[in-house]
Amino acid sequence: MYKRVEEQLNIKLPVEYVNNYQNKKLNKCNQLFLPDDKEIVGIRDYCSLENEEDENYLLNVYGRDKNMLLDDLIPFAITEYDDYICFYYNKGRNYEPSIVYFSYDLAYEDRHEAIFHIADSFKDFVGLLQ
């Protein structure tokens, strides 16, 4: 199921993400603590890895908004504000990505200013979920 996403985007999804997705553990976590802001943000939905008809299928979300995103950003969750939680492959698409918050509104002014670091790895990100 997730292999198509990896092939289409030429990435390697974090193993911890795939395991959490397959075991449906992410669906139980709908709030994210942002340590820098001391704020809790609601996660409205996680992108699907299997249902290509779903508007929130990861490849559909990426395809719809890739012109707004930086090249190395791959959204995997949608917040209550319609912003994205993304994998950030800034070290290369074959390396473990960091996790960032992408502010859609700020991206209209400057896409680089719309990115806020959340965690160095998906494992660290999971520790921020509530």
TrEMBL record:
Kindly list any coiled-coil regions of this protein.
Answer: none
Cross-referenced InterPro entries = Knr4/Smi1-like_dom (IPR018958), Knr4/Smi1-like_sf (IPR037883)
Protein name as catalogued: Knr4/Smi1-like domain-containing protein
Q: Where is the Knr4/Smi1-like domain?
A: 3-126
This protein's superkingdom? Bacteria
